[in-house]
């Protein structure tokens, strides 16, 4: 396991002081990871349906070469799922797809190239949660590719089969505190951005977890965007995701061809982005869930979790 990442944060929610357990989760700082399942990419799978035509063209032109480039660009997380949970990550940004041409309704995690079967990932989360009863995860299913109604029904019933009574019912966001979740033995909040989930009580709508996306390669523009969207955060009714993420462009992919996403965009700019994160505060009008690329490059999770101490100082200095 890379330096600074171990099991130190495996039980961080359960270890929070009592004042914070009683606070709505929308006011706590929670570390998340972006395109969470890209730590394993199947080089032999067909190019995923989320890619633009130019990549498909590349794939036919230089079959193996193009896939190698895409592996570089889509490996935005280096830790396995369980390692991310042990490191303290509690929010996962998920994109899923069927494999076109494959018989049956199997669903896979995707970011560029196909990764794991969704079921395997969910089982891995579930076994972590069964061992760590006071930890809670947010699973944000926000992009679906090559999925018909049957695929959605398959995935929706899989989520209910795997997590069962750990699934939190969709309710008022302001009521969701750790104390409330522990009392009900809820450990999983699933956001399912699709109308087919609307009538299922344990599926939360995407509108309750806005995640504005800066879509820029420039750190200054990213910070400006994050600050503006935090100021505009709704006062009631939703969690909030701050995506501290730089996005590769087509020409950046060409430029970064030999370096890969990691060296080209991330290592250069991560210190700048992390120092911005360190100056944030959770609470009303503050940050909530923060996602970043490469959770193994910094003690990102530690930095985000520690922001919650600011709420304690505030709490202790309130006039009696």
Automatic annotation (TrEMBL):
Q: Which InterPro entries match?
A: PI-PLC_domain, PLC-like_Pdiesterase_TIM-brl, PLCXD1/2/3, PLipase_C_PInositol-sp_X_dom
**UniProt GO molecular function:** phosphoric diester hydrolase activity
Q: Which Pfam families match?
A: PI-PLC-X
Keyword tags: Hydrolase, Lipid degradation, Lipid metabolism, Transducer
Question: Which Gene Ontology BP terms does the record give?
Answer: lipid catabolic process; signal transduction
- Which superkingdom, per the lineage? Eukaryota
Keyword Lipid metabolism carried by entry: yes
| Domain Phosphatidylinositol-specific phospholipase C X as annotated: residue spans | 19-193
In terms of PROSITE patterns, this protein maps to: PIPLC_X_DOMAIN
User: What's the protein name?
Assistant: Phosphatidylinositol specific phospholipase C X domain containing 2
The species this protein belongs to is Nothobranchius furzeri (Turquoise killifish)
Q: Which gene encodes it?
A: PLCXD2
């Amino acid at each position: 396991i890379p330096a600074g990442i171990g099991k130190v944060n495996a039980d961080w929610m359960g270890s929070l002081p009592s004042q914070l357990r009683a606070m709505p989760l929308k006011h706590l700082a929670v570390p998340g990871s972006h395109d969470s399942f890209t730590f394993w990419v199947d080089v032999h799978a067909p190019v995923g349906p989320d890619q633009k035509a130019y990549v498909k063209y590349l794939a036919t032109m230089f079959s193996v070469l193009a896939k190698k480039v895409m592996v570089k660009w889509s490996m935005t997380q280096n830790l396995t799922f369980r390692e991310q949970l042990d490191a303290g990550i509690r929010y996962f940004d998920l994109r899923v797809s069927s494999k076109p041409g494959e018989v049956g309704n199997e669903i896979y995690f995707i970011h560029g190239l196909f990764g794991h079967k969704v079921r395997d990932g969910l089982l891995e989360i579930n076994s972590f949660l069964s061992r760590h009863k006071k930890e809670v995860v947010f699973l944000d299913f926000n992009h679906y590719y090559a999925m018909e109604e049957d695929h959605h029904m398959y995935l929706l019933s899989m989520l209910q089969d795997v997590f069962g009574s750990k699934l939190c019912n969709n309710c008022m966001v302001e009521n969701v505190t750790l104390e409330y979740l522990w009392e009900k033995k809820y450990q999983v909040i699933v956001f399912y951005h699709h109308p087919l989930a609307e009538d299922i009580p344990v599926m939360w709508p995407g509108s309750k977890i806005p995640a504005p996306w800066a879509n820029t390669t420039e750190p200054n523009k990213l910070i400006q965007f994050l600050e503006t969207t935090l100021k505009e955060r709704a006062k009631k009714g939703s969690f909030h995701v701050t995506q501290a993420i730089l996005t590769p462009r087509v020409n950046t992919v060409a430029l970064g061809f030999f370096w890969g996403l990691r060296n080209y965009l991330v290592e250069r700019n991560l210190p700048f982005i992390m120092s911005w994160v360190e100056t944030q505060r959770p609470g009303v009008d503050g940050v909530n869930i923060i996602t970043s690329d490469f959770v193994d490059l910094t003690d990102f999770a530690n930095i985000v979790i520690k922001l919650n101490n600011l709420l304690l100082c505030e709490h202790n200095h309130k006039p009696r």
